[in-house]
């Protein structure tokens, strides 16, 4: 009787009819509370329903009843990944491997974690170990190809991906991975083809949706340059990202100091300092402006999330404010409207990022809100008293400087697990 309930529940699970599968499994467990297979599948069902807490509860019971079953540890590792407990996931997979060294999927999952943690050589080695046990393992093939690309082994990465597609030409994840590979190597048109294929096989593939949005924006040269920068710095480990950011800032400050201290060098160094400042500013504004333009694309309503659409509205409002300030400045020849234009441009940056998750929560919208209040007070004082050097103007510039470091910290933490 239990076996029949399990088989029906498993079929429903494969059909993604999770509530019905859960109901049958609960029914089976009333007859045999110690059924390892039912407990394991119930954990899988709850994980699929985005309930990692319940999934963890059932998998812990299963592990307690059968502590030598490697599959249970691998499933718990996936639950830990879902709640971003990567250290725990790694330890669980190592335990699974110690229990069953011949299971290729465990090596593939461990390789995927190493890849996410930017340990590219280690990821490639683990993927190769998985493939030595199962040459057709798609996760291992995809991880290996990405790890090879990150190590600048472009030809080998291409061959690995071709092998993955050869194993399953209709695999959405492989097409997605192929798309990101092409995007990183500057082939946005080919990337777009693979993202379209990925979404044809799985319309809910969010990784493919994100890639397609990037590929569509990459038709603009400026955004392609921005993507190259994003990939370049994104491939670095956290400490090297900080080295670059701090080094860029310190280098610019040093050049400015030398230009001020040595008048003979000022005509040569000042343009370089201005150029570096413009490059730094462009890395903040290209993304929001490009997403604003993309929002008019026919695919935007499918690819932009609800919060991204809200961010686009904020971006559009800030851009409109900035352009209005520029227009008023030229029409009325009043420098205070130039302050409005600058404030609008700067405020576009935090408001375009307001939806990014932080710990503690809501730090991004809080930062954007505080900067908006400071800017509003600064402009109010400037327009009512004529004092354009009031303390709130300085406070706004300081808040923008502080926000850049905060946003960099959030971005680096998100990209390094």
Question: Mind explaining what this structure looks like?
Answer:
The protein is built from 21 helices and no strands. The protein is mainly α and 417 residues long. The chain has four domains: 101 residues, Alpha Horseshoe (Serine Threonine Protein Phosphatase 5, Tetratricopeptide repeat); 50 residues, Tetratricopeptide repeat domain (Serine Threonine Protein Phosphatase 5, Tetratricopeptide repeat, Alpha Horseshoe), CATH 1.25.40; 75 residues, no CATH class; 113 residues. The longest helix is centred in the C-terminal third of the chain and has 29 residues.
Q: What's the helix and strand layout?
A:
Layout (H helix, E strand, L loop, with lengths): L1 H13 L3 H14 L4 H13 L3 H14 L4 H13 L3 H14 L4 H13 L3 H14 L4 H13 L3 H14 L4 H13 L3 H14 L4 H12 L3 H14 L3 H24 L4 H29 L5 H4 L2 H27 L2 H18 L10 H23 L5 H25 L2
How would you sum up this structure in a few lines?
The protein has helices spanning 2-14, 18-31, 36-48, 52-65, 70-82, 86-99, 104-116, 120-133, 138-150, 154-167, 172-184, 188-201, 206-217, 221-234, 238-261, 266-294, 300-303, 306-332, 335-352, 363-385, 391-415. With 417 residues, it is mainly α.
User: What count of structural domains?
Assistant: 4
> Overall 3D geometry?
elongated
- One letter per element, helices H and strands E, the order comes to HHHHHHHHHHHHHHHHHHHHH
What is the percentage of strand-forming residues?
under 5%
Binned, the helix content reads over 70%
Structural class: mainly alpha
What is the residue-averaged pLDDT?
93
Distance from N terminus to C terminus (CA atoms, Å) equals 45 Å
Query: Measured on Cα atoms, how large is the radius of gyration?
Result: 26 Å
Residue windows where pLDDT falls under 50 for at least 5 positions = none
Strand tally, please? 0
Largest sheet: none
Number of helices: 21
Protein name: Tetratricopeptide repeat protein
Organism: Nonlabens xylanidelens
Keywords: Membrane, Repeat, TPR repeat, Transmembrane, Transmembrane helix
Transmembrane segments: 240-259, 271-290, 311-331, 337-356, 363-386, 392-412
């Amino acid at each position: 009787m239990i076996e029949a309930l399990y088989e029906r529940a498993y079929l429903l699970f494969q059909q993604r009819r999770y509530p019905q599968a859960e109901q049958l499994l609960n029914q089976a467990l009333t007859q045999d509370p110690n059924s390892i297979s039912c407990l394991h599948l119930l954990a899988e069902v709850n994980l699929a329903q985005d309930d990692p807490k319940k999934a963890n509860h059932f998998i812990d019971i299963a592990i307690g009843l059968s502590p030598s079953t490697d599959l249970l540890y691998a499933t718990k590792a996936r639950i830990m990944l879902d709640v971003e407990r990567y250290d725990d996931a790694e330890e669980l997979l190592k335990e699974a491997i110690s229990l069953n060294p011949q299971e290729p999927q465990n090596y593939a999952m461990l390789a995927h974690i190493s890849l996410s943690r930017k340990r590219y050589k280690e990821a490639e080695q683990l993927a190769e170990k998985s493939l030595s046990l199962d040459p057709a393992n798609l996760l291992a093939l995809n991880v290996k190809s990405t790890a090879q690309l990150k190590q600048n082994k472009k030809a080998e990465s291409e061959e690995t991906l071709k092998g993955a597609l050869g194993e399953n030409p209709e695999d959405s994840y492989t097409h997605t991975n192929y798309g990101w590979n092409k995007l990183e190597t500057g082939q946005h048109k080919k990337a777009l083809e693979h993202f379209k294929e990925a979404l044809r096989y799985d319309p809910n593939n969010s990784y493919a949706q994100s890639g397609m949005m990037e590929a569509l924006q990459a038709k603009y040269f400026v955004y392609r340059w921005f993507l190259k920068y994003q990939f370049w710095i994104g491939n670095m480990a956290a400490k090297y990202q900080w080295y670059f950011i701090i080094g860029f800032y310190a280098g610019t400050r040093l050049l400015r100091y030398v230009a001020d201290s040595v008048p003979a060098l000022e005509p040569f160094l000042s343009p370089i300092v201005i150029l570096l400042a413009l490059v730094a500013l462009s890395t903040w504004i290209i993304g929001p402006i490009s997403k604003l333009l993309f929002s008019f694309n026919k695919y935007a309503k499918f690819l932009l999330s609800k919060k991204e659409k809200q961010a686009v509205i904020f971006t559009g409002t800030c851009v409109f404010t900035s352009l209005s300030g520029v227009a008023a400045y030229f029409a009325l020849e009043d420098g205070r409207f130039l302050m409005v234009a600058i404030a609008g441009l700067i405020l576009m940056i935090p408001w375009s990022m307001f939806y990014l998750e932080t710990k503690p929560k809501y730090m991004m919208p809080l930062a954007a809100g505080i900067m908006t209040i400071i800017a509003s007070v600064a402009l109010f004082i400037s327009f009512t008293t004529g004092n354009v050097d009031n303390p709130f103007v300085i406070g706004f510039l300081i808040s923008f400087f502080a926000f850049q470091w905060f946003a960099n910290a959030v971005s680096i933490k998100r990209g390094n697990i």
